[in-house]
């Protein structure tokens, strides 16, 4: 089963805002008396940018996909068996979820501010659960296991 996490839609509010600015410029140009062809270009361009911005707000770009065998972050695919640890780290761009791999220099960063706040806890829990499944770990329930062969 694949789980998909998308970027926070609020990151893309500037796109429809630019379209609305272009429509405002078209209105001002029309009011000043600029030829209709120029006004039409601004209206069409502004309308297209607003529509594209609304599309991106409704369906933001995919940030990461979690599969049973691998995790894909912004197009970079890493097998679960290559990941050793999931945690948080401070970067120059803010806090990030880090997927540490067997090779230190190949760690994968997922910026926290790119995700919706409600998705962060769910993502971290799912990352740890899938990492445990890939490595055959189970969550310790606080009890001691029965010894199969007691020491003498």
What can you see in these coordinates?
- The chain has 152 residues and is α+β, with helices and mostly antiparallel strands.
- The chain is built from three helices and seven strands.
- It has a four-stranded antiparallel β-sheet with strand order 1-2-3-4, with helices on one face. The chain has a three-stranded antiparallel β-sheet with strand order 5-6-7.
Structural class call reads alpha+beta
Query: In which range does the helix fraction lie?
Result: 40-55%
Radius of gyration: 24 Å
C-alpha termini separation: 46 Å
The count of helical stretches stands at 3
Average pLDDT confidence is: 85
- Silhouette: rod-shaped
Quote the beta fraction: 25-35%
Low-confidence stretches: none
Helix and strand run: EHHEEEEEEH
Number of DSSP E strands? 7
- Largest sheet features: 4 strands, antiparallel
Strand order of the largest sheet: 1-2-3-4
Which oligomerization state do the chains in this entry correspond to? single chain
Which descriptors apply to this entry?
152 residues, alpha+beta, four-stranded antiparallel beta sheet, three-stranded antiparallel beta sheet, 25% strand, rod-shaped
Secondary-structure topology with pairs:
Blueprint: E1 3-6, H1 14-32, H2 36-58, E2 62-66, E3 70-73, E4 76-79, E5 83-91, E6 94-101, E7 108-111, H3 117-135
Antiparallel strand pairs: 1-2, 2-3, 3-4, 5-6, 6-7
Helix pairs in contact: 1-2
Brief overview, please?
This protein is of the alpha+beta class. Helix content is 40%, strand content 25%. A hairpin with a 2-residue loop joins β5 (83-91) and β6 (94-101).
């Amino acid at each position: 089963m694949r789980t998909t996490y998308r970027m926070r839609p609020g990151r893309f509010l500037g796109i429809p805002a630019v379209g609305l600015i272009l429509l405002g410029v078209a209105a001002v140009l029309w009011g000043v008396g600029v030829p209709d062809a120029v006004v039409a270009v601004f209206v069409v361009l502004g309308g297209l940018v607003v529509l594209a911005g609304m599309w991106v707000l409704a369906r933001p770009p995919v940030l990461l996909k979690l599969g049973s065998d691998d995790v894909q972050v912004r197009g970079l695919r890493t097998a679960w068996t290559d990941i050793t640890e999931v945690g948080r780290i401070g970067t120059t761009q803010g806090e990030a979820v880090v997927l540490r791999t067997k090779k230190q220099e190949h760690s994968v960063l997922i910026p926290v501010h790119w995700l919706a706040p409600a998705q962060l806890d769910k993502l971290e829990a799912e990352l740890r659960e899938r990492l445990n499944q890939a490595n055959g770990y189970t969550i310790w329930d606080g009890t001691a296991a029965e010894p199969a062969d007691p020491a003498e």
